[in-house]
Amino acid sequence: MSAAIEELEAALGYRFQDRELLRRALTHKSRASDRDAPPELADNERLEFLGDAILGFLVSEWLLRREPQAPEGTLSKMKSRLVSATHLLSVAQALDVGRYLYLGRSEEMNGGRSKKALQADAVEAVIAAIYLDGGMEPARAFVSQWVTGEAEGLAGALPDATDYKSALQEMTQALRLPHPRYATVEERGPEHAKTFLVEVRVGKDWAGRAEGLSKKSAAQEAARRVIAQLNEQSP
Fold first, then answer.
1. What strands, in cross-sheet order, belong to the sheet with 181-188?
2. Packing angle between helix 215-233 and helix 164-174, nearest 10 degrees?
3. Where does the pLDDT of residue 234 fall: very low under 50, low under 70, confident under 90, or very high at 90 and above?
4. In Å, what is the CA distance from 166 to each residue of 72, 171, 180, 222?
5. pTM here?
6. For the segment 181-196, what is each residue's pLDDT rounded down to a tens digit?
7. 28 & 133 share domain
8. In this structure, what CATH number is given to the domain that contains residue 195?
9. Residue 137 CB neighbours (<10 A)
10. pLDDT digits (tens, 9 = 90+) for 53-62
11. Catalytic annotation, residues
C-alpha cells in the first residue's frame, strides 16, 4: 500500500513525516471494526472532527481577504458553499480519494468507495492529518490549492459577492464612456498564496487598482473603485 500512499501524497502536494496519520485519515469505521483488523487500527472520525474545524477557519480567513467589502451574511453563504459535502466531494473526486480508502468488507461490497459522504469526510480527515503532521501552513496550502477553487477543474466554484465588473460595463455604456480595460500589473508570493494587483481604466480620466488572492477578485475590487469615482463625478 506504500506505493498507493506515495501516489496520493503526490496528488496532495504534501509528503507526510508520519504516514500513519494519512492511513488513519483514509480508514473508515467499517474497516476498523472488522474482525481481522489490527486492534490498534483507528478510524478517521476524530480526524474528520478536527478537519472540519480547521477547514472552517481557513476558508473564513481566505474569504475575509478575498472579499473585503462583503457583509457577514454574504460571507456565511460563501463559506457554506465551500465547506459543503457537495464541494468536498468534487475535491475528493479530483484527488481520486475513493481509490485509497480503507473499507470494511461489507462497506466495500456496498459501493463505499463511491459514496459521497465517505469521500467528503475523508477530505476533512486528510486536512486534519496534514495539520497534525506539518502544522497550519501546509494545511493552508492544501485548502488554497484544492478547496477554495484555485485547482484546475475547480475554478469558478465560488461566485462573486457583487459583480462590479458587469456593473461598471453597464455604467460606462449608459454614460457613453470608453469600455473598461483591465490589466494585471503585478503578481507576487508563492504559488499557493499568490496575490495579484489589477488595474482597470476607463478612458484617460478614471482608473482603479486593487489587490486580491485571484485576478478575478482583484478586478472586481478595482471595478468597484472606479464605480465610486464615477458616482462622485457624474451628475
1. 181-188, 195-202, 206-212
2. 40
3. low
4. 23, 9, 10, 12
5. 0.66
6. 999 999 988 776 678 9
7. yes
8. 3.30.160.20
9. 12
10. 999 999 999 9
11. 52, 124
30 with 90, same domain?
Answer: yes
**Identity at 199, one-letter amino acid code:** E
> Which residue is listed with cell 473598461?
180
Q: Which residue has the cell 477530505?
A: 123
Residue 154 pLDDT class (50, 70, 90 cuts): very low
- φ/ψ (deg, to 5) at 184: -85, 115
Over the stretch 85-99, which tens digit does the pLDDT of each residue have? 888 999 999 999 999
Position 53: which residue type? Answer: A
Does some domain include residue 156? no
* Domain that includes residue 170, residue range: 164-233
